């Protein structure tokens, strides 16, 4: 047996299981073992209920006092309530759609419950806790992300089975000297420690190893890519007259835009392919800069591709870029997951024939079906949504295309070095003229009536309104803290429609089909809707200049940078615009954070504050991390490990510049960057 064997080799894993595991991206034994626990349950020290912390996962011990029959609640779901308690306090337990769990609990017996406490001190509650009989002797139990049919306990069992079968056969790609030097466990031992730990020290040791390993691979990859960047420029521009492009605009570019375009043209006509990061606050006009580069490429017979993280954003970009470029004879094609059948065939043909000079799309553009005649420029928007992997794939698509990465999130220096180490940076530090800063207010839900009266007046004046709510259907979440929050569907039905009965209101959330989302967005863009209630699917890039109010419910849920991005959806037209942050959380911390937004519109200042006060983990938010491939390391806090890894990577590459003598290592790095062709350097 070896790590690269399929999971089906394990006993009890058949086709069905394999399919379910595939949903967690687990195909091989290595995938299985690299799927680290997201947490551990320590059943050995339960809290007395009265002392258990609120809203953080913890273990309590409680005796079962009573159990209700399951009752039907809305949407055909069932609710089953159990009362329990210890000497210190009572505990209400609720199971949604899971009467079987409740049935297992016997009256008068004691159990250990793991979950999040909510409710009031005289009525403590836990929703859908995990539990064990109190007399069972369980050590540290790993908790894994689950999916349909695959439970955490099952994954734990598979991992220990895999480790038994692989015993003594796991080869470690990290050189032994490095492990010795830093006292890191070897790979096999580390897997054992992270999946079947005997104590918390083992978990910490294993994590230290995986952090180092990950940063080490990443650094090796970045350095290898860097050398690749030193290849010849095979898409060198010769004609860079942009006069027709500038003349076609109905506004003057900002100085910052001109400067960025200049830097880009210089790169593209230089000896090496361009590798540039275009960084600018929301609304600074990055699209226009990209358009100029695309125009220049097209005039030199080169195709361009622009990749956006969502279908909505891709659609929007295609429209904006078509407005800018089609009058100049450049054909713009939109390729997303929902383009199918004959239109898709035609499109692919036009791309392969070089007739579509710009292809805008989601990651659908990375598919093998898409073959360019002569791709010269690859642009990615909102890079923090993509990983180094996708960027690698995009780069592999053409031979050495010019690369332009656009980002609205100011990127801290460490991360910049780490992820964008090989990129030059252009900064748009100037907003287009005539923008008035978005007026931002923080309010509580008590003012909801007045807020809606205000929205009504804005709509009367011909404007449109965004309302952002955090979740789709509150009760589906196990987490009670989320349950108190407004769910967007409920909000749409019971708040927005009731308080604005005469207005046209749209609803959009992440669980809708992308064609539906695109349609709602189209209606909103065309002013067929006055209000758009949505989840944060609108977060990035959407441009509807007529919308001048952004309402954010449960504003305390978001990082400041995320709030700033959301706010950037308004204030794009010339009139006054508003952002209303709704929150009933009145802790000092929340008050301070929201108040900062009320006082500044400067994305960099906001990012700095976020970084200082919330800690780096929160900075990008989980989804915006920018490095989906970094599973254990934190680019901001693991700075020491990062520096060490960078130094060791450089040292190793000095003696073995192509990793020819370290094939296992090369394989790991290639996997991380997902470059089919590898890192051949010549
Ligand atoms: P972002 O940097 O957030 O991607 P966009 O490229 O979407 O910003 O531009 C925001 C808005 O500003 C768009 O409506 C765009 O047409 C407009 N815009 C861009 N550059 C200028 C300019 N120089 N003068 C006036 N408006 C501009
Ligand atoms: Mg944008």
Main features:
six-stranded parallel β-sheet; binds adenosine-5'-diphosphate; 682 residues; alpha/beta; disordered C terminus; binds magnesium ion; seven-stranded parallel β-sheet; 39% helix
Can you describe this structure?
With 682 residues, the protein is α/β, with parallel strands linked by helices. Strands 12-13-11-14-15-10-16 form a 7-stranded parallel sheet, sandwiched between helices. Strands 17-22-21-18-20-19 form a 6-stranded parallel sheet, sandwiched between helices. Strands 2-4-5-7-6 form a 5-stranded mixed β-barrel. The protein is globular and about 80 Å long. Magnesium ion binds next to helix 10.
Short description:
With 682 residues, the protein is of the alpha/beta class. It contains 24 helices and 22 strands.
Terminal CA distance reads 36 Å
Q: Give the oligomeric state.
A: single chain
Categorize the overall geometry.
globular
Computed Rg: 27 Å
What's the total number of strands? 22
Strand residues, percent: 15-25%
- Cofactors, ions, other ligands: adenosine-5'-diphosphate, magnesium ion
Structural class: alpha/beta
Average per-residue pLDDT, rounded, comes to 85
Order of strands in the sheet with the most strands?
12-13-11-14-15-10-16
* Fraction of helical residues: 25-40%
List unreliable stretches of 5+ residues: 615-629, 675-682
- Biggest sheet architecture: 7 strands, parallel
Instruction: Give the count of helical stretches.
Output: 24
């Amino acid at each position: 047996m070896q790590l690269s064997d399929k999971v089906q080799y394990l006993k009890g894993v058949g086709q069905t299981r394999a399919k379910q595991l595939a949903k967690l991206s687990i195909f091989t034994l290595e995938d299985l073992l690299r799927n680290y626990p997201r947490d551990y349950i320590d059943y050995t020290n339960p809290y007395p209920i009265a002392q258990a912390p609120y809203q953080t996962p913890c273990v309590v011990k409680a005796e079962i006092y009573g159990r209700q029959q399951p009752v039907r609640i809305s949407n055909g779901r069932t609710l089953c309530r159990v009362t329990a308690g210890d000497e210190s306090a009572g505990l209400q337990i609720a199971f949604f759609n899971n009467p079987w769990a409740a049935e297992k609990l016997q009256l008068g017996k004691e159990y250990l419950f793991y979950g999040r406490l909510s409710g009031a001190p005289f009525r403590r509650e836990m929703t859908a806790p995990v539990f064990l009989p109190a007399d069972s002797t369980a050590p540290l139990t790993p908790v894994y992300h689950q999916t349909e049919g695959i439970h955490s306990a099952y994954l734990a069992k598979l991992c220990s089975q895999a480790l038994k079968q692989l015993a003594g056969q796991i080869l470690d790609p990290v050189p032994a000297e490095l492990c010795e030097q830093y006292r890191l466990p070897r790979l096999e031992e580390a897997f054992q420690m992270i999946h079947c730990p005997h104590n918390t020290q083992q978990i910490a040791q294993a994590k230290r190893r995986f952090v180092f390993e990950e940063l080490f691979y990443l650094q090796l990859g970045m350095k290898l890519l860097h050398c690749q960047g030193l290849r010849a420029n095979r898409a060198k521009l010769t004609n860079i007259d942009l006069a027709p492009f500038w003349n076609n605009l109905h506004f003057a570019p900002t100085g910052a835009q001109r400067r960025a375009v200049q830097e880009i043209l210089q790169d593209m006509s230089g000896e090496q392919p361009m590798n540039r990061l275009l960084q600018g606050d929301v609304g600074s006009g990055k699209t226009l800069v990209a358009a100029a580069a695309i125009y220049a490429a097209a005039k030199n017979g080169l195709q361009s591709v622009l990749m956006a993280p969502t279908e909505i954003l891709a659609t929007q970009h295609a429209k904006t870029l078509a407005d800018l470029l089609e009058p100049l004879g450049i054909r713009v094609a939109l390729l997303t997951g929902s383009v199918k059948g004959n239109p898709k065939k035609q499109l692919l043909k036009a791309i392969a024939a070089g007739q579509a000079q710009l292809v805008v799309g989601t990651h659908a553009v990375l598919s093998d079906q898409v073959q360019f005649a002569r791709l010269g420029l690859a642009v990615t928007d909102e890079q923090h949504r993509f990983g180094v992997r996708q960027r690698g794939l995009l780069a592999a698509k053409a031979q050495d295309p010019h690369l332009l990465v656009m980002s609205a999130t100011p990127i801290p220096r460490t991360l910049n070095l780490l992820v964008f180490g090989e990129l030059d940076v252009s900064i748009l530090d100037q907003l287009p003229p005539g923008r008035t800063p978005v007026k931002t207010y923080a309010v509580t839900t008590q003012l909801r009536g007045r807020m809606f009266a205000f929205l009504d007046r804005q709509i009367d004046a011909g404007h449109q309104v965004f309302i952002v709510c955090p979740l789709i259907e509150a009760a589906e979440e196990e987490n009670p803290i989320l349950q108190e929050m407004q769910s967007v569907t409920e909000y749409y039905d019971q708040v927005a429609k009731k308080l604005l009965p005469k207005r046209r209101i749209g609803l959009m959330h992440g669980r809708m089909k992308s064609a539906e989302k695109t349609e709602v967005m189209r209606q909103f863009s065309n002013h067929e809707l006055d209000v758009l209630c949505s989840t944060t699917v609108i977060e990035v890039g959407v441009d509807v200049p007529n919308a001048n109010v952004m309402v954010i419910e449960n504003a305390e849920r978001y990082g400041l940078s995320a709030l700033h991005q959301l706010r950037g959806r308004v204030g794009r037209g010339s009139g006054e615009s508003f952002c209303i942050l709704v929150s009933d959380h009145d802790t000092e911390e929340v008050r301070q954070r929201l108040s900062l937004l009320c006082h500044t519109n400067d994305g960099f200042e906001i990012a700095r504050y976020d970084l200082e006060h919330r800690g780096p983990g929160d900075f990008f938010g989980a989804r915006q991390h920018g490095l989906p491939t970094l599973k254990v390391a934190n680019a901001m806090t693991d700075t020491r490990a990062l520096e060490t890894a960078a130094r060791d990577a450089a040292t190793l590459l000095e003696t073995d510049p192509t990793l020819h003598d370290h094939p296992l290592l090369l394989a790991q790095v290639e996997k991380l960057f997902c470059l089919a062709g590898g890192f051949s350097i010549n």
